[in-house]
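Worked example 4.2. Below are the chains of a multi-component assembly; read each line carefully before continuing.
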Amino acid sequence: MLSQKARYALRAMLHLAAKPIAEPQQIADIAEGAAVPRKFLEQILLELKRRGLVHSVRGRHGGYQLGREPKDIDFAEIIRVIDGPLALSPCASRTAYRRCDDCTDEATCAIRKALIDVRNSTAKILEQHSLADAMADRRKMKPAA
Amino acid sequence: MLSQKARYALRAMLHLAAKPIAEPQQIADIAEGAAVPRKFLEQILLELKRRGLVHSVRGRHGGYQLGREPKDIDFAEIIRVIDGPLALSPCASRTAYRRCDDCTDEATCAIRKALIDVRNSTAKILEQHSLADAMADRRKMKPAA
DNA sequence: CTTGATCTAGATCGGTTCGGTCGAGATTTC
DNA sequence: GAAATCTCGACCGAACCGATCTAGATCAAG
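Applying the procedure described above to all four chains together yields the following structure tokens:
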């Protein structure tokens, strides 16, 4: 399961992607638009900023904007920033591999084999979905809005 | 991520699958063979039993045995028993669907769409891996043992 | 029928994570 | 310099996790 925090992050990023990248949007607006508790959203945006996914502008007319073009930000990256590796087990992770300390033989471990299959397919799917794709989908499904 | 408990459960089930289904294996043996803390394993086996994945025999020469043929028990089922639904979000789960309370429009939700893709592919992979397959794999990779 | 091995059940526990809030500080604009 | 904004760290309660302890129920064998 994704954490609630990660779901918030996805929604917030989608909200940012809805407007031109140039104009910064303020925390309060994002919080309202994406239905995320304001103070909690601050934490989330800070983490996203540290990893370069968003950029902040301080001061009076400040706010947050995407750090890159929407087509260059995918779901997998957002989820990894907030929740960590996608894999179901550290021994099946590519970005954060760690051997199971109680695993007797990794080579013949049938469990690991299955988990690696899962992580590969999950990563592939989530990396295919960019913010730009998501926005396009939304427009296609609800053209009147 | 899978919980440690789920990984223990998978290992324990694999251990049970290694011997003929007729002869019950005792908790102590399974604990040692699968490297699972004994008392914790008791809880795990109880849960697996409640869901019919294993069967217990009491008394002197008692123990646990698989509830069905190894080919009829897949990884997905074991994981679901211990950790709950496979999906990354309740709104993307088939076995435990629940609407996101803060979702404005499920139909156009691009996040949900991606998460459903992930859950489908994950379920497919894990349902393809049965205990019997896992044992066969292991034998194939390490024929000398 | 007693003994001892087993399963069953639940209370408990220390630690960590999760979701969320508060308050103060730093930075920029008007 | 006042006002609006982001920044940052401390904090909180509840849930969860991994694991252990204790006590009881059940059965088999001697």
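Take a moment to check your reading of the output against the notes. Residues 74-129 of chain A form one domain. The first strand of chain A starts at residue 54 and ends at 57.
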